[in-house]
Amino acid sequence: MRFRFVWIGKTKDKHWKALQEEYLRRLSFFAKCDLAEIRESAPHEGKEIEGKRILELLNQKSLAVVLDPKGKQLTSDELAKQVERWRDSGRQEVTFVIGGPDGVASGVVERADLRLSLSFLTFTHEMARVVLLEQLYRAFTIVKGFPYQK
Question: What domains can be seen in the chain, in order of their start residue?
Answer without folding.
Answer: 2-149 (3.40.1280.10)
